[in-house]
Specification:
The chain is α+β, with helices and mostly antiparallel strands. It has six helices and four strands. Helices cover about 45% and strands about 10% of the residues. It is globular.
Length: about 150
């Protein structure tokens, strides 16, 4: 599904739980950034129909999904400030990190990891440590034959 994302999506949507961006009038609404959800590791996560200026109702990324797409596209400068400015709600930290972790096998993971470290500081380090510990525990369970996970 083709959907609006990036800075365009950050300037749309419900601002009750995440503020998004505030440069609505500066955006080129004739050519909003769009991506194909079928090509993304995030699938259809965070995409809902919304009114897009000049285009009517279209699928649009939530503020979280828009930031994830910016990270996945390597547009770290545009995503910079996502934690404090665009999302500004720590209740979503774990959800965001779980989604970003889907990118951990990519060649550009060191850049993604560095970006997340700058944005989330110790929370990101703790998250990665927990994920790596979980992975080691699963591997050890498979080796000993005492694994509880399928």
């Amino acid at each position: 599904m083709r959907y609006v994302t990036g800075m365009h999506a950050l300037n749309l949507g419900d601002r009750t739980s995440t503020p998004g961006d505030w440069h609505f009038s500066a955006m080129d609404w004739q050519h909003p950034m769009t991506l194909e959800s079928g090509h993304s590791p995030f699938g259809d996560y965070g995409i809902t129909p919304q009114d897009v200026p000049g285009h009517g109702v279209m699928p649009v990324a939530s503020h979280i999904r828009a930031c994830l797409d910016l990270i996945e596209q390597g547009l770290y400068g545009s995503a910079q400030g996502m934690r404090d400015d665009f999302i500004a709600n720590p209740a979503y930290d774990r959800e965001i990190m779980d989604q970003v972790w889907k990118l951990h096998t990519r060649r550009d993971w060191p850049q993604i990891d560095r970006f997340m470290g700058h944005e989330y500081l110790g929370r990101w380090l703790d998250y990665k440590q927990d994920r790596q510990h979980d992975t080691k525990a699963r591997l050890m369970g498979h080796r000993t034959g005492h694994c509880d996970t399928p």
